[in-house]
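If your schedule permits, I should be very grateful for your opinion on a structural question. I have a record of one protein: its chain in single-letter code and its fold written as discrete structure tokens. Would you kindly read the sequence against the tokens and tell me how you understand this chain to fold? Thank you for your consideration; the sequence and its tokens are set out here.


***
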Amino acid sequence: MKRKTIVMITVMAVMQLAGCANLGVQPWERDLLAKDEMALDSEGVDIGLDDHIYFSKEATSGGRSFAGGGCGCN
């Protein structure tokens, strides 16, 4: 029973370490990630909607290019 537990813990530890073996982007994958479609803000309409929601809820203006808040603290 004790040997079985040790084997199980060892197998789980090896599996967890093997899961971290391939982190990051490989050089041959970077051309796909550099395309405009892969950008987080590639759609102009989405950016406009996000900005509208942000300044409507937070009582601010802009938010992308300058600091400041609705309370005038900054």
Observations:
- The mean pLDDT is 75.
